[in-house]
Design goal:
- This protein is α/β, with parallel strands linked by helices.
- 52% of the residues lie in helices and 12% in strands.
- It has a 7-stranded parallel β-sheet. A 6-stranded parallel β-sheet has the order 3-2-6-7-1-8, sandwiched between helices.
């Protein structure tokens, strides 16, 4: 029961209903700026206050971690406020404690907690960790490599045909990419394997194929109706030309053919396929001689060309083969589709095994493991799911439009009841569903939206929040006008009806601030591209805002001047960011671009990657020569030519270098440079074999002063940040389960191949007073006083359409038909149908992106597009209207946002087009909510942009201005002295710079010139449970293990060795070692390397039984202590921190002992006694053992004794 709304409350009726509605599943369709977050928080608070529900009995799911933190903070603040107002309320006091256990998080966080609490159901190691992006990318690539290798070994005939079908004659990259895409599509389903198995069913079963025929026939009719509209418009235009019988008869023939064709059900595709367009009669002489008639004739011809394009598109794409042929081809393709499914299924299983072996999980594992916990084998909710149903009184899901099918299944498993009596509250806006590339499924929202609010209450409760509290009414009414004529269920996936419209609710004053739609007419005579001209125009638009606009404060009713930070530039991507940055730099406008592009293109990063690639493999001429030509080694072009000329037949330049050095006639100076270069290369190659990548990068930085050099260049601060960013990425890489320079380079290559850039490191913060540029995706949920929406004329990226294999979550997989005999490709029935579905979904999402962009603006919206031809704009303005919408075909085939927006907005009050080409005869009859307030201006680039001469001399003027300013300003002696002091400053604690702030025991030992051959903290740390070690390539694993690797393995076995008073039998010891393999602590083939007999001797020793009977035992004990305290030195200088790790510490009869294991191979000189050998061994490790002893004594504040245990000798007391 909804309580009566008091008169004084701030909530609208729809918001009030959203806060209190319950008893059914509730779907709140919250339009942009409608206050959904405030409503969601208030609903949570009222559930706590009115219904006495504890906050930890509500599950609140948000889209991002940031949203979750903000939501939790808001709820906590409201609880505290309520508790202060009612201090005697014990329930509220309890909530202040329980808020810290409240389940307000992303769904992934909820899934993670679920797995951590119920890992036993999954039979996984509880010490798992989340895989990094590095691991996900490299591991998937590695698994695909392995799976393909197995299938190449098997060489199934279908696999061979599939490879020929999808791959090129150069490589199988296309097939691998297809399998990767199939993998991502499949795991977005609750049952990935089931989804894969169903992909070939439409190719085999006729009753399923009719669905695809229906789709194809629908779009055939759509194109034919568009062709009919075009030929009818052509006919109307020709009436303005005059009475020319040949032309009229020609046009009339096409009109009659289309009318006859469209009147039939189904359409006669044979007649359509064989129809001949014929040639249009020549332009009449009288028309040529009359400019007005000639212009009308050209208009007629433009519409006739549209008619031809639509008809030819149908003939070439949809009706080239009859229905029966299309259906027969599917049978031929079925085995290949099945094999694609098998390949992907193999990848899923192999990847799962690889992740379990490394004990890592990724985000898809979170979802699928959670679902596995919550569902039994029959797919019904499990006992655990029942417990969660009882626990949560209500489940609240924010941004519901961005969920996928797996997430929907998880939520469905823990919610109560069905839609008519459930406890699920969902809020979102399908018009802002813009994450399809992340497998978000807006159809989940759409289906519920259409199904809820049935008269018989058989489903859920739907509420529309349409009042906008963000934007001025001019922004809202123009947005409504645009979408009222652009979006519907046919192209847009939803109807933009009265419930979907935005209604004004913000408390602005009554000042008229229309939306600015500025079309820049490109100057084709300039060397600047259209995008460069647009970038300069954007910069001018920013200057205009700063000079002429103000920001209104609704609280005070006052205005303040506009600032840089009030302005945002929104574009579909960052592809134009570089040009905008350059234009803003020249206009001296501060700009913040949080770009994810351009990092790998930076000079400093390209140099470092060339260096790393050359170290990894110098037989790569581009990188090798690039490094030699770089500022580091500075070989000239002439020197490189001389090197190459000596042996021009060499396959690699590296060979030419070696031959040049050996040549007697070689220039000694060049030879010296080459030897230095090769010595450096050899040194770094050796270093890379024994050190992590980040240490190699750091060494390159220091050896060649790379950071210092690039810091001194223009933009040095950003360049320095980029180089530090590369170092940090190498550190992140090292924290993954992959190791080595080769794997790091492979990871970088994968990022470049996937077009997934890191983005330049930013040195300007997002809170500074700067203009911001961001993508529409990243702007979602934000608002700005002034929004410049630019880049409208950049074409949509339709690269995923028309490929040999196309995918759709609902329609499945479309594989083009491949004729092996002819080597030709044809679209199959299913591939054509899915392509059409995908194009509709694609355009629908692009429309939603436009909606998000427009609704970010608070004060004013600026739309910026470019055009090269006025005629193109005229054709858009005269675009066909059908049922008060822009014609479906024009929306379906739109090339860019500008075409969609200009074709609609340019019709508003346009007296240059005919009545039937406008949406309304009189704009005044429109309702205020959809009456656009718009200023559309065509601006000639020559009138608004600086001349090229101005741009060329601007830099010189800046230098002249600076010199004049310096000459006019006398030099201040005090200032000069301060500058001199800073430039000549000498750091007074130079000695401290050389002193390490932290040292390991091993390092101290090396400093004292004593050899250290065993325990290494980093090496042992790799064998912690859940941390995989670097795996050498197979051909290296087959070679003999190094002493260090054997030592590491022995330490790993000893680290986990159980100490039992009864001792360990041989069988128990073997079982223990086998368990290490099962727990992925060691590998199966490592057992052959472990000296089991030596471990048996230890188990049988007196020391083992003493440890087993002791009071306390600690293995692999790390310590950190102050060097002064350990060495008992005066505390007169800064002390270093000493860190180390002791193999074992035990407490016996109140006294502490430590043990250090050694795997040294003992070399006893001839005639050496046991006593002499013991003295030698004790002396060898004296310093290390002293530091261990003193460190423990410092920590424990009591005497400590120690033992060296040599597996090949026995124990030695220290």
């Amino acid at each position: 029961m909804i309580p009566t709304k008091p008169e004084h409350v701030q909530w609208t009726d729809a918001q009030w209903e959203s806060i209190y509605a319950k008893g059914q599943d509730v779907l709140v369709a919250a339009a942009a700026g409608s206050g959904k977050t405030a409503v969601l928080v208030e609903r949570i608070i009222q559930r706590i206050l009115r219904d006495d529900i504890d906050v930890d009995r509500l599950l609140v799911v948000t889209f991002t971690n940031l949203s979750a933190r903000e939501m939790k903070h808001r709820v906590e603040a409201r609880i505290q406020q309520a508790a202060i107002e009612d201090p005697s309320n014990q329930h509220l006091k309890n909530q202040r404690t329980k808020i810290h256990q409240a389940q307000i998080s992303t769904l992934h966080s909820f899934c993670l907690r679920l797995i951590q609490q119920h890992y036993d159901v999954l039979d996984i190691d509880p010490n798992f960790r989340t895989a990094s992006e590095v691991e996900n990318v490299l591991l998937l690539e590695e698994v695909i490599d392995d799976v393909f290798e197995k299938h190449y070994d098997r060489l199934d005939p279908t696999f061979v045909t599939l490879t020929e079908h999808i791959s090129t004659d150069r490589d199988d990259a296309a097939l691998r990419l297809m399998v990767k895409n199939l993998y991502y599509f499949s795991i977005a389903n609750p049952d990935p394997i089931g989804w894969l198995h169903a992909l070939d069913q439409p190719y085999l079963e006729r009753h399923l194929q009719q669905h695809y025929l229906d789709i194809l026939n629908k779009y055939v009719r759509l194109y034919l109706e568009a062709a009919q509209n075009a030929i009818e418009e052509a006919y109307h235009q020709f009436e303005l030309v005059g009475d020319f019988p040949k032309h009229i008869d020609f046009i009339e023939g096409h009109r009659q053919f289309l009318r006859r064709l469209l009147s039939e059900q189904p359409i006669d595709k044979t007649a359509l396929a064989t129809y001949q367009l014929g040639r249009i009669p020549p332009k009449p002489k009288a028309v040529k001689e009359d400019p007005m008639l000639d212009a009308a004739y050209e208009n007629f011809k433009a519409y006739y060309e549209q008619f031809k394009d639509h008809l030819n598109a149908v003939k070439s794409s949809f009706v080239g083969r009859d229905d029966e042929t299309l259906l027969e081809e599917l049978q031929h393709l079925a085995p290949r589709v099945n094999y694609l499914s098998t390949l992907t299924e193999d990848v899923i299983h192999a990847l799962s095994r690889a992740k379990r072996a490394r004990n890592i999980l990724d985000f898809s594992d979170y979802e699928h493991f959670a679902l596995q916990i919550l569902r039994d084998e029959q797919g019904e909710p499990s006992e655990i799911a029942t417990l969660y149903r009882e626990r949560f009184e209500e489940i609240l899901v924010d941004e519901y439009q961005d969920t996928n099918r797996v997430q929907e299944s998880i939520i469905g498993s823990i919610k109560r009841g069905d839609e008519s009596n459930g406890n699920l509250f969902m809020v979102g806006d399908v018009k802002q569903s813009i994450y399809k590339f992340r497998q978000a499924d807006p159809s989940l929202f759409i289906e519920k939206y259409q199904r809820f609010n049935q008269p018989d209450q058989s489903s859920g409760w739907r509420i529309d929040l349409s009042q906008n509290f963000r934007s001025r009414k001019e922004v809202l009414s123009t947005t409504n006008y645009l979408f009222d004529h652009m979006m519907d269920a046919e192209v847009g996936e939803i109807e933009y009806d009265a419930a979907a419209k935005l209604y004004y609710g913000a408390p602005y004053d009554e000042v008229d601030i229309p939306v600015q739609f500025n079309v820049l007419m490109v100057d084709k005579d300039r060397e600047m591209t259209a995008s460069e001209q647009e970038a300069y125009f954007i910069a001018q638009q920013v200057q205009t805002i700063l000079e002429s606009q103000k920001v209104y404060d609704p609280k005070t009713g006052a205005y303040r001047p506009a600032q840089y930070k009030d302005i945002v530039i929104l574009e579909r991507s960052y592809s134009n960011a570089r040009l905008i940055q350059q234009a803003f730099k020249e206009q001296d406008i501060p700009l913040f671009v949080n770009s994810k592009q351009g990092y790998f293109e930076q000079t400093e990063i390209r140099l470092m990657l060339s260096f790393l690639r050359t170290i990894d493999n110098p037989l790569q001429d581009i990188y090798l020569v690039g490094l030699m030509r770089s500022v580091i080694y500075q070989f000239t072009e002439d020197e490189l030519a001389k090197i190459r000329i000596v042996s021009p037949q060499d396959n690699y330049f590296y060979q030419s270098i070696q031959h040049y050095i050996e040549d007697e006639a070689a220039d000694p100076a060049i030879v010296a440079k080459l030897k230095t270069f090769l010595n450096d290369l050899a040194r770094y190659q050796d270093y890379s074999q024994h050190h992590p990548v980040y240490q190699l990068i750091d060494k390159l930085f220091n050896d060649h002063y790379i950071i210092q050099y690039f810091s001194a260049l223009v933009g040095g601060r950003g360049r320095r940040a980029n180089l530090h960013g590369l170092f940090n990425k190498a550190v992140d890489f090292e924290n993954s389960s992959f190791r080595g320079l080769f794997q790091f380079i492979r990871f970088i290559d994968q990022m470049i191949e996937r077009g997934k850039d890191f983005g330049e490191e930013n040195v300007i913060g997002p809170n500074d007073n700067v203009v911001r540029m961001m993508t529409i995706h990243s702007s979602k949920g934000l608002e700005f006083p002034f929004v410049i929406y630019s880049g409208l004329t950049r074409d949509f990226n339709k690269n995923d359409l028309g490929k040999p294999v196309v995918l759709n979550q609902h329609a499945g997989l479309g594989l083009q038909y491949y004729d092996e005999a002819q080597g030709l490709f044809y679209p199959s029935l299913i591939s054509m149908s899915i392509d059409l579905i995908n194009q509709k979904e694609f355009i629908s999402e692009e429309m939603r992106l436009i909606y998000v962009a427009l609704t970010r603006a608070k004060e004013q919206l600026y739309l910026i597009g470019t055009s090269k031809k006025a005629e193109e704009l005229d054709m858009m303005a005269a675009a066909t209207i059908t049922d008060e919408k822009l014609a479906a075909i024009d929306r379906f085939n739109a090339k860019n946002p500008f075409q969609l927006m200009y074709s609609i907005l340019s019709k508003h009050q346009n007296t240059n087009i005919q009545r039937h080409q406008r949406f309304e005869a009189d704009v005044e009859v429109l309702d205020a909510a959809v009456k656009p307030r718009l200023q559309l201006q065509h601006m000639d680039a020559r009138d608004v942009l600086p001349t090229e001469q101005d741009l060329a001399t601007s830099q010189g003027h800046a230098i002249e201005t600076l010199e004049a300013r310096l000459a006019a300003t006398p030099l201040d002696d005090e200032l000069a002295q301060r500058v001199m002091e800073q430039l000549l400053y000498v750091y007074p604690y130079q000695q401290a710079v050389q002193q390490a702030s932290k040292q390991s025991v091993s390092e101290l030992k090396r400093q004292l010139d004593t050899e250290q051959a065993d325990t290494n903290y980093e090496r042992v740390r790799q064998y912690r449970l859940g941390v995989a070690t670097y795996e050498r390539p197979q051909f290296l694993q087959e070679q003999q293990h190094t002493a260090a690797e054997v030592g590491t393995l022995m330490h790993t076995v000893m680290q986990h060795l159980p100490f039992k008073e009864a001792g360990l039998t041989d069988q128990a010891l073997n079982d223990y070692i086998e368990s290490l393999v099962k727990r992925s602590i060691i590998r199966a083939h490592d057992i052959n390397v472990i000296a089991i007999e030596e471990i048996k001797r230890f188990v049988q020793s007196d020391l083992y039984y003493r440890i087993a009977k002791s009071n306390e035992v600690y293995t692999e004990l790390p310590f950190v202590v102050n060097q002064h305290q350990v060495e008992h030195t005066p505390d007169t200088t800064d002390a270093s921190i000493i860190q180390g790790m002791i193999d074992l510490v035990f407490k016996e009869n109140g006294h502490y002992y430590f043990v250090d294991y050694k795997t040294d191979a003992l070399i006893r000189r001839k005639g050496m006694s046991d006593e002499e050998l013991e003295r030698q061994l004790k002396e060898k490790y004296r310093i290390q053992m002293q530091y261990y002893q003193r460190a423990l004594e410092t920590i424990l504040k009591c005497p400590v004794n120690g033992y060296l245990y040599f597996f090949k000798y026995g124990e030695l007391a220290i």
